[in-house]
């Protein structure tokens, strides 16, 4: 246990054991014979073991979680030898609910769309990509206007250039569109949460 990173301490007639995260696992007092006896209960694995007190639930498991209406039909038509009559056909199996649940369909369109150009701009810093460009760039800063879907793609060599690139984009976009970006939607990664980046957005009125 000591080689595996556990901490073991003998102090004032008591044995204490901590795990790798220094969580106390055991505290054993010293016995009259100077032995520290720790009584443990062995865990009994239940993997691949079908447990159930009801015969119907056992047959439900044997047939790969077939629904109870199907089991009753098998019994009524005598299609399976030894299968008893299934009465509780309206019960629900928790495993069946988890295994057969479906994911909701993705929405065909967003709940919110910008009404004006540069009202909402999506930004993301992607990379590193291989191989690098001849000029040594291995990242790219992608900006997408939510209304027009117009894209700006700027190549970068390091992440710390994202702030400088955004300031240049902000000035050019405001000059071309006649309005400044309203909201910048990002994944809130480190380059976008830097103090200089946030201060610039606050100064320019960009949310």
From TrEMBL:
InterPro entries in UniProt: GAG-pre-integrase_dom, Integrase_cat-core, Retrotran_Ty1/copia-like, RNaseH-like_sf, RNaseH_sf
Residue ranges of every copy of the Integrase catalytic domain listed in the record: 103-207
Output the Gene Ontology terms for molecular function: nucleic acid binding
SUPFAM superfamilies per UniProt: Ribonuclease H-like
Q: Name one Pfam family in it.
A: gag_pre-integrs
Give the superkingdom in one word.
Answer: Eukaryota
Cite the PROSITE patterns for this sequence.
Answer: INTEGRASE
According to its UniProt entry, the protein's GO biological process terms are: DNA integration
| Coiled coil stretches, renumbered | none
Q: What is this protein called?
A: Integrase catalytic domain-containing protein
Q: Which organism is it from?
A: Paspalum notatum var. saurae
């Amino acid at each position: 246990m000591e080689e595996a990173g556990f901490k073991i301490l003998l102090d004032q007639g008591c044995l204490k054991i901590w795990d790798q995260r220094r969580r106390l696992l055991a505290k054993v007092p010293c016995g009259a014979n100077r032995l520290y006896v720790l009584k443990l209960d062995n865990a009994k694995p239940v993997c691949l073991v079908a447990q159930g007190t009801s015969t119907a639930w056992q047959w439900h498991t044997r047939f790969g979680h077939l629904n109870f209406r199907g089991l009753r039909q098998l019994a009524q038509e005598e299609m399976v030898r030894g299968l008893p009559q299934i009465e509780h056909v309206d019960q629900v199996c928790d495993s069946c609910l988890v295994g057969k649940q479906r994911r909701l369909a993705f929405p065909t369109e967003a709940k919110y769309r910008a009404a004006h150009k540069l009202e909402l701009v999506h930004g993301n810093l992607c990379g590193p990509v291989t191989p690098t460009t001849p000029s040594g760039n291995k990242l790219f800063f992608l900006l997408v206007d939510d209304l027009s879907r117009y894209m700006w793609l700027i190549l970068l060599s390091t992440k710390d250039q994202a702030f400088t690139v955004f300031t240049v984009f902000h000035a050019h976009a405001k000059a071309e569109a006649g309005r400044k970006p309203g909201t910048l939607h990002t994944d809130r990664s480190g380059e976008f949460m830097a103090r200089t980046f946030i201060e610039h957005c606050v100064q320019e009125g960009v949310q």
